[in-house]
Design goal:
Largest sheet: none
Strand content: under 5%
Distance between the termini: 61 Å
Structural class: mainly alpha
Shape: elongated
Number of helices: 4
Helix content: over 70%
Radius of gyration: 17 Å
Order of helices and strands: HHHH
Length: 113
């Protein structure tokens, strides 16, 4: 691999890393806003295990960001686990409940109280 190819690979890896970081920070922001608006009642229309999982994402998402920056391999492994489980949970909720609109309603209802 020559210097140009190596530079391209490094640039691509940095772009990929930045996209992952932005994605996980968006996830962190989303769950933080839900908790700020809904407080302890955030996600109250869902079963406790789902509520716990979505609250844990408020901690796991920024942890992934830190690990991607400091321990790339560990961060990537945790990031893949988090996103696969998150997509699986959200897809299951969508398939069984008919969407995540109940979540938005729950957060709005709690913040209006």
């Amino acid at each position: 691999m020559n210097d140009t190819e190596s530079s391209r690979c490094t640039s691509s890896a940095r772009i990929f890393q930045a996209l992952w970081i932005v994605g996980y920070l968006i996830g962190t922001s989303t769950h933080t806003v839900d908790l700020l608006l809904g407080g302890t009642n955030a996600y109250s229309s869902f079963p406790d295990p789902l509520r716990l999982f979505w609250v844990l994402l408020t901690v796991l998402d920024p942890l992934v960001v830190v690990l991607i920056l400091l321990q790339k391999q560990v961060g990537v492994v945790l990031g893949v686990v988090v996103i696969v489980v998150d997509v699986g949970v959200n897809a299951t909720v969508y398939a069984t409940i008919g969407g995540l609109h109940s979540l938005a309603y729950s957060v709005r209802r709690c913040s209006a109280s």
